[in-house]
Amino acid sequence: MSRIKTFNLPDLGEGLTEGEILAWLVKVGDDIELNQPIVEVETAKAAVEIPAKWAGRVQAIYHPEGATVEVGSPIIAIDTDPNAGPIEQSTTGAPAADLPTPSAASLAAVEVAPEEGMVEPGLIGGVAPGGRTAVLVGYGPRNAPAKRRPRKGGVPAPAAPVQAAPVQPAPAPAPVVPAPALNGNGRPAGGPVLAKPPVRKLAKDLGVDLATLTGSGPLGSITREDVQRAAAAPAAAEPLAVTAPVTAAASFGADREQRIPVKGVRKLTAENMARSAFTAPHVTEFLTVDVTRAMKALDRLRERREWRDVRVSPLLLVAKAVLLAVKRHPMVNSTWAGDEIVVKDYVNLGIAAATERGLIVPNIKDAGRLSLRELADAMTALVQTAKAGKTSPADMSGGTLTITNVGVFGVDTGTPILPPGESAILAFGAVRELPWVHKGKVKPRQVTTLGLSFDHRIIDGELGSKFLRDIGDFLADPEAALLAWT
Questions:
Q1: Residue 158 main-chain phi, psi, to 5 deg
Q2: What are the residue numbers of the active site?
Q3: Cβ distance 471 to 479 under 8 Å?
Q4: Is 0.70 surpassed by the pTM of this model?
Q5: Which of 8, 316, 337, 464 has the fewest CB atoms within 10 Å, measured from its CB?
Q6: pLDDT digit string (tens) for 323-376?
Q7: Sign of dihedral through CA atoms 13, 367, 419, 398?
């Protein structure tokens, strides 16, 4: 039995066909132990760490980080007995046993360089072994003598003499001296300003530019009176340059586009949503509810000593309301199976979570059996695991009913698409303070809007409306609903 073991990418659950290598946790030459995590792979479900099947030393890694690998393809080779001496090497330098065999296509794509002397000296495009024409990369074949660049310090070969008629040089034109440009004061632009030192100091103190003045003294020199007269005169307003706004020409094309590969969680989500949207006939109903009493109940719950370390949010009461409403309307928690409807006596409650890798829907298994405190702990753990990117495929499979909390984005409600295999999904909108008629008077109250999408093959309008109404009744007065239903 060979000591070199090739580890293939396993099926991580529910028939996944490929995975993306996010990070290698080992490198070639590392000694590893049995079940030690060696690579982190993102599938269409989640990012998971894969442990080693054998202890030993990493001999080879076949795919870099970021590569997408099909299930069953080799990803790493492990020497299970690194202390047994050197490994027999093949002609390619790889271990001779248990390494993946190159495909015929890859072998056909390899070009063997011709032996020295097979190409005719001095010709580019000479015939190489196998009848190929040897060419330089980026150029086509050209049967022409190659031109060589002369060596540094060498003497170039003498060229054949060329007889040329002598050319008489044309007479150079006489230089044209441009006339000096005059400024507005009759002096050459940039020429010297005639002024005595005391006049210059006075101009500097008064902030007068001598170059802008016309002198009244001998030979056009500037006098003290010229400076004082300029300082006393009101400054001429300079015209403001008005530049018309220039709108850039429309530019559009591939250089201003971004192409994002569709893979992993996003790919699976797209496939599931398209399949669900065009398979299950969706119906969505909405209900606006005064949840002021529910918010006050949460405040009282947070003040209790045994709940001080528990994350309590409005979503907790929504989840409890859904679980109680399912007990009153079991048909909502069912699946369309073609020639039959499967009604489930357990609720795997899905909580949609937005992560860096996309939307995932992990679920709490058999959530109806949990107390309110246990439900709060389970939801907290679920959200933290999802945000850390550590949700396992098992946690995202088998959901029966889902809640999506669009209110965290400041959205009032939505028309959510059913996850495949489920018959209902509830959108929980933002809780806002709005004017509301309460006991015959308009008062500011805490209000939210619920949106329930359901599969009309299973749930008709009456059942869907009753289910949504019960959720609203619980949120309007949770204490009274608990007393009445339990």
A1: -65, 135
A2: 456
A3: no
A4: no
A5: 337
A6: 999 999 999 999 999 889 999 999 999 999 887 777 889 999 999 999 999 999
A7: positive
